[in-house]
Design a protein that fits this description.
The structure holds 2 protein chains of 2 kinds. Chain A has 2 helices and no strands. Chain A is mainly alpha-helical. Chain A has one domain. Classes of the chains: A mainly alpha, B mainly alpha. At the A-B interface, helix 1 and helix 2 of A face helix 3 and helix 11 of B.
Chain lengths: ~80, ~270
Amino acid sequence: MSISDEISARLTPYIGDFNAKIWVKAVARRELGLTPDALTAAHVEKMLDGLRPSLSTFMGRGAAEDLLLQIGREVR
Amino acid sequence: MRFRWLAIFPLVYVALFILIAWQLGGAQNLATFVIGQRIFVRLLAVVGCFMAVSVFERGDHLRNAWLWLGGGAILILILDVLRQLPGFTDNPSLAAKMTLSGVGVLSNLALLAGIWTLSRSWKLAAIELPGGRGAIVTISTITILLALAVTGPDAYAAVNQLLGGDVSAVLKLVSAVVDVITLCLITPLLLIAVSLRGGSFVWPWGLLTASQVCWLLYDGADGLTRLFSLGGFPIAETFRGLAETLLFCAGVAQYLVIRQVRRGVLAVA
């Protein structure tokens, strides 16, 4: 499983498959100038930082932080 | 965690309402029952909104949205209670009319602020809505036309009443204008809900959207009554009950999904 798929898979149970893929794709492009396929473990932290604003809007800062911490622990 | 019961509860509630209302017929008992259940569903809506507020932190975008909705729900509950008090029912004084209009206008504005804040979430989150520009334009056009068809006549009548010197028409006019704007905001709510399909967050957004659709039906209930002979059956109250119980369930769903995230209970597919 690629890094982008790993991150998407952890977002999907909450925000659905459509948003998970779109958000990961948008953040990879905006924050790193990369396609999702080009992401490596070294990009995970930057990806999580990029996902923070959108997740905070939809689930509040506390829940977003918890989820990002969980993803950061599990995706390496 | 299963959320289906949150979608089933409003349907069970409304089925019970219809059953009891049908049994009571056109009697005085029906009016008492309708008022009682109206206050009950308002209370449920308040509880749901503040359950949602309780899971967010101060300054969170959705906390503000639910606070507005909760504030509006409290004000509209106060309005319904005031309407039952002596001095506000038969031949109310100008002061009583102004009080009712003031509370009514504030409640409408608070509810609008809540829906407006929710509908802006996709912009703040910088996400794409499903279907692209075509879907947004199509659904928006349909919603705007429906909203105008349903609430336009009320707005026109309220303007005429106001011009005729009836102060209480201020509430009707503000309600009609707020209804048009709120109903137009169904589009972003619906598209956000669609974009969340497959995820647990679809539940609060889907139930909120359904609640707004029921308000559209509530506004159109007069037309339905004219079209079909319903024998004095309180069809508008049915949709009101459905809208408020759906708002309650949306608040509960919001509370549950946030707790779910914080506990990290959902497994990766």
